[in-house]
Amino acid sequence: ARVPRVQAAANASVERLLTPFLLRVRATLADMACVLRGASRCLGGAHGPWWVAASATTRRALSTSLARPSPYKVTAADIKAIRQRTSLPIGACRDALLKADGDHEAAVAVLQASEAGRAAAASAKLGGKPTTEGRIAVSANGPQGNVAMVELQCETDFVARNPEFEALAIKVADAMAASVSTPLPSSIDVEAVTEVLKPQISAATATFQENIRVKRAVGVAGCMPDAAASTILGQYVHGPGSYAALVVLDGTQVEASEDKAQALCNTIAQQVVAVAPEGDSEQEKLDNLLAQPCVMKADTTIAELLASEGVASTNNPILAAVRWQRGGD
């Protein structure tokens, strides 16, 4: 007698669970039948018997769909135009065009807003992760002869070698160069300049899904080809930004042409990267640099190389040399 009671209780439970669902299914099927009958007969327009018989939910849905204008059709030309302006993926450009109903300016605004939010979220999420990779980059000589060297860090070597990351590192260096004001290498306030570049760095963080930050920066101002400059700056970046050096040469002691003097200074920067000068002080390191065998010219010291290029040797013409290794201090 107990088994039938248990089975009856189970059946009752199943019925309680299924009844609301089955009632909703039946109501939906009834509404669909009404719509199909009305559509097939094309009677009564939007106020015929089939409309009255349909549920309120169905009537609202149909009213919305009937009132909505024909949707905008995305074209390949529109997507191409938006991609050229934003460099964002095809799918994102397509969605933005749909939201903007084909208006290019509105689509770009939609993408910019969404990218800004995505970048901010990525920065907040990834900001504390350790950065052990990256690359060193040197800016081009600015209009006042300003040059900056920066180390931009990321999490993996894969990202560090990406051309877009390299371009970002150079862009950061160019921005850092604008804030330099000393004729000899000096540290740059990374935090202040990074705040200006925050949108670009945040966007890169979102793109690569890695923490990206500027670790350090150093700059030199007023070097040739600035007409008023009395110093020449050489630079060298090795391979994928793993090593780099800046060298400042006293232009008043150089008799060679400007192009030859620049090439000579670049050679010394390459020497500094290849063989780090040793010494207890900066001046001792510069003096020892003169005695080093030149890696680019066998059986010749740096002092002899300078003399062969018309550089006076009364005083050490090398005013400063900065050598960086990626991940160093």
Task: Provide the residue-averaged pLDDT.
Answer: 78
The low-confidence parts are 42-48
Task: Label the overall shape.
Answer: elongated
- The SSE order reads HHHHHHEEHHEHHEEEHHHE
Distance between the termini: 85 Å
* DSSP strand content: 5-15%
Q: If strands are numbered along the chain, what order do they take across the biggest sheet?
A: 1-2-4-3
Helical run tally: 13
Fraction in helix: 40-55%
E-strand count: 7
The biggest beta sheet, please? 4 strands, antiparallel
**Structural class designation:** alpha+beta
Rg is 35 Å
Nutshell version of this structure?
The chain has about 325 residues and is of the alpha+beta class. It contains 13 helices and 7 strands. Helices cover about 50% and strands about 15% of the residues.
Please give a structural write-up.
- There is one protein chain.
- With 329 residues, the chain is of the alpha+beta class.
- 52% of the residues lie in helices and 15% in strands.
- It contains 13 helices and seven strands.
- It has a four-stranded antiparallel sheet with strand order 1-2-4-3. A three-stranded antiparallel sheet has the order 5-6-7.
- β5 and β6 form a beta hairpin.
- The radius of gyration is 35 Å and the shape is elongated.
- The relative contact order is 0.08.
Give the helices and strands, then pairings:
Elements: H1 2-41, H2 49-53, H3 56-67, H4 76-86, H5 90-99, H6 104-126, E1 133-138, E2 147-154, H7 157-160, H8 163-177, E3 186-187, H9 190-196, H10 198-208, E4 213-220, E5 231-238, E6 243-250, H11 258-274, H12 282-291, H13 302-308, E7 318-325
Antiparallel strand pairs: 1-2, 2-4, 3-4, 5-6, 6-7
Helix pairs in contact: 4-5, 4-6, 5-6, 6-10
